[in-house]
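TA notes, week 10

Several of you asked for a full example with nothing omitted. So below is the full record: structure tokens for the whole chain, then the designed sequence directly under it. When grading your own attempts, check the secondary structure regions first.
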């Protein structure tokens, strides 16, 4: 069964959005836990943890968005691979705009 680049792009964008949301929730909970228990870290430790999280996150995000298109590209389906990446980008922009608009309207009512 062949899946269209639009659907693959949406699934990739939705997966990336869920990953970013989960990562943000975990970091926020960890920060609250550290503040509640009075745990303090040195600036060096904070920088190292931030950079490690950034690199790991970049690897995960790159795998989510570029993994399947690279597989397509290596099997000779260059046009479909490019279309899939562009559809993923379009879906990511659409999701980001929806989140921004919903957040704006919810915050403006407070």
């Amino acid at each position: 069964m062949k899946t269209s680049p639009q659907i693959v792009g949406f699934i990739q964008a939705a997966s990336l959005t869920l990953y970013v949301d989960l990562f943000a929730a975990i970091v926020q909970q960890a920060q609250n836990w550290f503040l509640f228990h009075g745990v303090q870290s040195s600036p060096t430790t904070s920088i190292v943890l931030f950079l490690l999280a950034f690199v790991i996150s970049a690897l995960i995000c790159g795998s989510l968005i570029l993994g399947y298109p690279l597989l397509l590209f290596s099997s000779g389906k260059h046009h479909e691979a490019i279309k899939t990446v562009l559809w993923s980008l379009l879906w990511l922009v659409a999701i980001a705009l929806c989140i921004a608009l919903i957040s704006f309207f919810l915050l403006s009512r407070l």
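The chain is about 85% helix and 0% strand. Use that as a sanity check on your answer.
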